[in-house]
Amino acid sequence: MEINLEFTFNLINGDVLKAMAKDLAVLEKSHTKKDDYIRAIVSCIRTRPSHLVASLTGPEKNFLAEIVHSGRVPTGSQFQAKYGQPLPLIHGYRYSGKKPSVLAGFISPLSPARQGVPQEVLDTYKPFLPAPSAPQAKLLSGPPEAYEGRPVQIFSGERHIATKLGRVLRLIHAGKIKITDSSRRPTDASTRLLAGTLVQPDFMLEPPKAEVKEHTDVAGPVRGHAWGVLVQQCGWAKPRSGSLILTDIGKDILASFTPAKFKSGVMQFLLDDDFDELHRINHIRGQTGKAKRWISPPGDRRSDFEDHVDVWPVEEWLRFDEAFRLIEAAGGISDVLTTNSEALYICDAHYGTIFDGRDLSAQFLRALVMESLATLGLVDIAWVYPHHLWPEFSDSYGCGAHSFLGRYDGLIAVRINALGAYCFGIRETFAFSLGEEEKRFHLLPNHELTAIATPDAADIAFLELITTQKSERVWQLEALTILRSMEQGTRLSDIREFLSNSARQGIPLNIDKWLEDLGEKSAACKKSHQAVLLEWGDPVQAHLVASSSGTRKLCHHAGENRIVVSERHLAAFVREARKLGFLIPPAG
Fold first, then answer.
1. By CB distance 3.0 to 4.6 Å, which of 311, 366, 463, 504 could disulfide with 439?
2. Is the residue at 467 inside a domain?
3. What is the pLDDT of residues 468-499, one digit of tens each?
4. 3-class SS shares of the chain: helix, strand, coil, % to 5
5. Domain range spanning residue 476?
6. Whole-model pTM?
7. Phi-psi bin for 506: left (phi > 0), alpha (psi -120 to 50), beta?
């Protein structure tokens, strides 16, 4: 259906049209019908664009500029976030005594908001209005030392991301990470194991002991849990029989970490719909029930974030509220709820229903930033423990039953770092500098690894694959153990990299040579085939069959009265032996 000005203005009430014509100074005494008002207004819009622009208020000019330069109609939250003013009234009827804007006739309410603007409006008014500027960020010189009387903590994971990822992937390679069958999230035991391997401790989210009461909610782990999910979302691991195993991509990045490989995983994470960060906000209830049909795909929400994150100045601190405002002003994140249904609630489904799309989007962004992006080292964050802050939904029913809505309520500031700018396409390159990992072992020429610092769970899990433990702090490299591990998929390059990164003096020359010999021997046998051993009553007959023209290419003479035939050649060998007068009995 073609959308033109006559069509869109015809959808507006007659008394409203008369008021619009009067405001534009195009109303005449002879105008008594709705069609008269429409003709006068449309004629002014088409022939006197400068006059119409001059008649608009500041917010109306901003609104029209957004439309003609982007071809889209901004939402109310987007307009409010960018200009700090409410959206002009663009309904075609009076609302609470407010006078609708003439711009109501520029948009068809019968078409999707982003498609309902007549093309002639875009073409006519673009030259008369300057292009809107990008939303301006209000920067912080740095996170405050305290917030609401609580000490502020800062986390920056960019420098150690390769080390952290390597430890997580080594745990998975050793079969140590178990997941639940239904949610595919790590079990509590695996979450604790992952938390124990982190280079930097997990976020401290619990209040001081003096503030803990009987019903105080426990915030629980963040990054310890997140890694068990992120490796699946990034394509580095996949579930099998209740555990995670490495994918080929995971094995590759474990063997050789590069920013490009890491970025590829991040891109896959952004599109993932299997896991939703909102599910980690336990007190928003109803998410896994019938409400699933009304909840937008999380991959769409993350993609929206990626589309607009370039409004965050790189390596500059922003208050979380300001960071959220900038995302909203640039276009926003898809609403969590696709309809205004009573799907989600706090505490009680009858009284605690959640309708506010903006607050829901803010809660999702908090979880996305703190649970996923900070864990991946893409953003730096500043936070306090979340209890009793309630930055969103503070006036909702059920608040008194909980200490916080989400464990991320204490997120107060965020900064996109150089790694995040590279992964989100804001910068084309990234100069990666590996954080120096602590050397926790001595590797001695007698093949002993002696711990000089407490090994983490990932170290111990990998040592179990390639050594035999001799005492509490001593492990012995053994060829048989290594070969068994290589049969299960461990690569010699993984072992060399682990020893090189963990041994304080590096790999001794004799062990380096020993590993080289082990590698040559392990690769010496190129192929293996299933075969059948045939025994003959007479060695002369065995030699005759093995050397005959029809059979010699199908078998191998194994000496004396024995002939070996590959299973894939067995049927052909039986036929050729029959031609020589010999019958091959069935196996058994």
1. 504
2. yes
3. 999 988 999 999 999 988 887 788 888 888 88
4. 45, 10, 45
5. 441-522
6. 0.79
7. left
